[in-house]
Structures are given as structure tokens and as C-alpha cells.
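Running low. Invent one:
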Amino acid sequence: MTFEEAQQELEQIVARLERGEVGVDELTKLWERGEELYRICAAKLESVQGKIEELARSTRGDGDSG
């Protein structure tokens, strides 16, 4: 699942929860799925941030390459 797919599904879940159109049983399932999607998005963002920081260090010459 891509970041964009996870984000889109999470946005749909949030919208449904905000509209209050779900019962208690479905509410629990949606909340759990939302938590899962949030973790996916956060992990992907953290990974990208690490890569960006690594690239920034290498372009500044702060790396361990020499």
C-alpha cells in the first residue's frame, strides 16, 4: 500500500466518523483500521525523512565517505 492510498483511505474513514453514519460495532472496526493506516503513513514518512536527511548530509559532505 502506498502512502497516498493509506492517506486516502484514512481520510475516508475520518469523514465517515465525523458524519456519525456508523454504528458502534463498525465504529470500533473503523477506528482500528484508522490506527493501522496512521501507523503505515507515519512509518512511510519517517522512512522518507531519513532518506532526505541522508541525502542532505551527503551533499554537504558530512557523511562518512572520506
Remarks:
- The mean pLDDT is 90.
